[in-house]
Give the backbone structure.
Amino acid sequence: MTSPRTKVKYLTDGMLLREAMTDPLLKKYSVIILDEAHERTVNTDVLFGIVKLAQKERDEQKNNSLKVIVMSATMDVDAFRKYYNNCPVIYLEGRTYPVTIYHSKIKHEDYQYAAVCTIFQLHATTPANHDFLVFLTGQEEIETVMSNIKQIAKEAKGPPIKVCPLYAGLPASKQLQVWKKTPSGMRKIVLATNIAEASVTIPQIKCVIDTGAIDNENNPELTVLGKKMTAFPIDPKYSKVLLCAPEFNCLEEALSLVAVMSSENVFHTPLHKREEALKVKQKFISPLGDHITLLNVFKAFCKAPLKKQWCRENYLNHKNLTYAYEIRLQLLGVCQRLNMSISSCGTALDQLLKCLLSGLFTNCAWARTGAGGGGRYVTSAGVAAMLHPSGVLHSIRPAPPAVLYSELLHTKRSYVVTVSAIQPQWLHQVAPEYARRCRASR
């Protein structure tokens, strides 16, 4: 929240990047501080270039000069100083601790399994008051590893274990468990995304296990697919979906679906007109699930002549659908630059769902035994969850044997949100190695 009296404004890198799209010279600001520069996300790397150009052009135009401060505890100072034309460097002395680093001698195809093995090797040989911090890539991996640790801990030698997850989507009350003092004689193992890489200090951590999924530590390089994925300004899972789409002849549909999934909720359900809104929604619903339903909504929106009025009549959010339309144009431009073949699967929507599975293969769930009609599922991470009441498949019976979901929502219960029915064998087709691991863990 800002006003004419605002002196200091705190932004995420993504918000500043969006402001730079409409104001490349960032004329609102006289000083820009870019913190945690060592993280080197796509957004921050682009911002380093934007502020450098803005500073140069404002000096040439003799506008108000722009001061840029780049901060980090661990960045490569020489590289940044050279990039910013030999700018001055200020060192603020901090406190450091001696650290011994050990690298794996061999490459591990299954780094999750290797991490669990390392955890229990250390668990058997280190004192109980030495807590562990393990870096993983996301919520699904964290929940899978957490489940594995709890099972193995029942028979493992060593002190009792308390496992604490830490990721951005975790409720605040559960995040706070990480900082609670561990009871005497018990070991705490924190499973975290890069949210714990900077800005937070977790006491009593003595061992850090980093699963960093590279070929050569001295010269780390992205894979060919990874390099292509960085071209898209979206979640890497969705980038993978788009890059696999030509293989399934569905890039036309994949672009629309990824665009609308990258926006906010497109449905508008006012309390006083709930029944009417739900009735209108029926014309978009696909028995295949929520993803195809969203695609139907977006395609109808694109064809509507008077879009704002059409959205009002159909209880849809005009702003979010317009935003999705703009995202699609941007993604289409990236696909064209990569010379990707734009094709449509027409009514063969199984192809689109298989394509979606190729990027979201970690987001599978299977119907629980004996509960086929109850909509109860177990995710690949071993989490028991139900179909969310707002979803298309919630009222369909019998419930499909396997589903693909976009989000896992934790309230008093766990729910899978934005869900589509899939065939269990599809996972073996698009991600065979992951399918084998899932079968072994179930």
